[in-house]
Specification:
By secondary structure, the protein is mainly alpha-helical. Helix content is about 45%, strand content about 5%. The strands form three sheets. The chain has a two-stranded parallel ribbon with strand order 1-2. Strand 5 and strand 6 form a beta hairpin. Helix 7 runs parallel beside helix 9, helix 9 packs parallel to helix 12 and helix 13 packs across helix 15. The chain is globular, with a radius of gyration of 21 Å.
Length: about 475
């Protein structure tokens, strides 16, 4: 592919060079290429495949709902603007007792991701340039993550998000792929790998599932991005068999006769349970795009857990089996804590996590997911970082699921995942309507079906503590 430089983009060279980039920029009409790695991994192939990106672009160009509503959420976000200037740091701190500056990191990551996604959907090369400039700036400077135990959360959350943003521009001529891979493998992945192996010196159940899930997402995303098959295998094995609370059977310990499965962290609070569902869905989606069906593992146990959290978050009654976990350090202080019932919920609380899950199970697999589709309808159109408040909890998911994950029903529901390297998107809206196609055009019908009398025009603000304390 030949890349040429437009007059409007010449002024952007200073930002690219300041970030350590070289080469020429793409034109506004040029789509970034995507290739499969020699290792067999498909690229792009984390949360979005080439076919996914082509589908989004075609649907938005055709004015198809709900993609247009989802794209409007993206273009309205302040992070998705091509004038964003990165603020890279040498060391990022998260946690008490340190000069915390991690907000700079997560804001820049979301700006990189949103600009890269906006480029693929809208075709404006200025957004690709901005994403590349942000990513190059950080890989040229960042050397460590520090702070309290929260540094493991920073490694997990921002590692998987960084990889996803970079995956969207990995073939841009100005992107320093090798240097970015080095940053992921030296700064982010080692902390996440170490946490899964040693849990910060704590007993295995000291940390709630979300801690494991952030680390698992980082290890998997880094392994795929860096074409490291052994790292991907470790992440997948931990999901299936890991000793920590983030593995599938520990995070969802009880499957009930009604087809729902208890989410362990529902005994803690709603915000963290929603975070866990979002992280596990992210993990399953990234794995699916490389040919691993973790969505369906153990008789679709994740679907049963997601249905449970969705019903509970909608205000429904759910059962909860009392769970006692050990806390403390190995060979040191120890104690026990029991969660005996599902915590109270605020039905207005939401995260941008449901469109991906609803569309997978109902559109790809043809399975019923009534509670998940109801809550997806209520949350649509999903936004991203910056749409859910200023604190870190509003940036834990990349979001924009209405745009990114709404899909037509698969011709062969239940088929095994196959890494996709070619586009096959339709330019017309889906002929059929059901509760999986999350978006504004479906809100009225879905609201009536779900018994919801009113749907807010915008997404509801997630109220969540900014900092997670050690052992939580």
């Amino acid at each position: 592919m030949t890349f040429v430089t437009s007059t409007a983009q010449i002024s952007r060279r200073s930002m690219l060079k300041a970030a350590g980039a070289t080469g020429v920029a793409v034109t506004a009409a040029t789509a970034l290429p995507a290739t499969a790695a020699d290792s067999g991994f498909a690229h792009p192939g984390l949360l979005h495949t080439r076919a996914d990106l082509a589908r989004m672009a075609a649907k938005v160009k055709a004015g198809a709902a709900p993609y247009t509503a989802g794209f409007a959420k993206l273009t309205a976000n302040r992070h998705a603007q091509s004038g964003w200037t990165p603020q890279p740091q040498t060391t990022v701190y998260r946690g008490a007792g340190s000069p915390q500056n991690y907000a700079t990191l997560y804001n820049d990551i979301h700006a990189a991701y949103q600009n890269a996604l906006r480029h693929h959907v809208g075709g404006d090369g200025a957004h690709a340039d901005t994403a590349v400039a942000i990513l190059n700036a950080w890989s040229a400077r960042l050397t460590s993550l520090a702070g309290s135990a929260d540094r493991f959360l920073a490694a997990g959350l921002y590692g998987y998000q960084f990889a996803n943003a970079a995956e969207l521009v990995r073939d841009h001529p100005d992107f320093d792929l090798a240097r970015f891979q080095e940053m992921l493998t030296k700064v982010f992945a080692p902390l996440s790998e170490d946490f899964l192996a040693r849990h910060n010196g704590a007993v295995i159940t000291n940390y709630w599932p979300n801690w494991d899930l952030t680390a698992m997402a980082c290890v998997l995303a880094t392994g795929i991005f860096c074409d490291d098959r052994s790292q991907v295998a470790r992440a997948v094995d931990y999901f299936k068999h890991g000793d920590g609370l983030g593995s599938l059977r520990h995070a969802i310990p009880v499957v009930r006769d009604d087809g729902l499965a208890e989410w362990l962290e529902a005994g803690r609070d709603q915000g963290h349970a929603l975070l866990g569902v979002g992280l596990m869905g992210t993990f399953c989606e990234m794995a699916w795009n490389q040919g691993y069906d973790l969505y369906g593992h153990d008789d679709s146990r994740f679907l049963k857990g997601a249905q449970y959290v969705a019903k509970w978050s909608l205000g429904g009654e759910v059962s909860y089996t009392a769970n006692t976990r050990a806390k403390g350090a190995v060979g040191g202080w120890s104690g026990r804590e029991t969660a005996s019932a599902a915590a109270g919920v605020d039905p207005a609380m939401t995260r941008p996590i449901w469109a991906m899950i609803a569309n997978h199970y109902t559109k790809r697999r043809g399975l019923p997911a009534s509670y998940v589709t109801r809550i997806a309808a209520r949350s649509a159109p999903e936004g991203g970082g910056g749409d859910y408040g200023p604190n870190s909890g509003g940036y834990d998911q990349l979001g924009f699921g209405t745009l990114a994950f709404t899909r037509d029903r698969a011709a062969s529901a239940g088929a095994a995942p196959v890494p996709t390297t070619s586009a096959s998107a339709s330019s017309t809206p889906a002929a059929g309507r059901d509760l999986a196609a999350t978006g504004s055009s479906d809100i009225v019908g879905w609201s009536a079906a779900a018994g919801i009398t009113a749907v807010a025009g915008g997404l509801l603000l997630l109220r969540r503590r900014d900092r997670v304390r050690q052992g939580e």
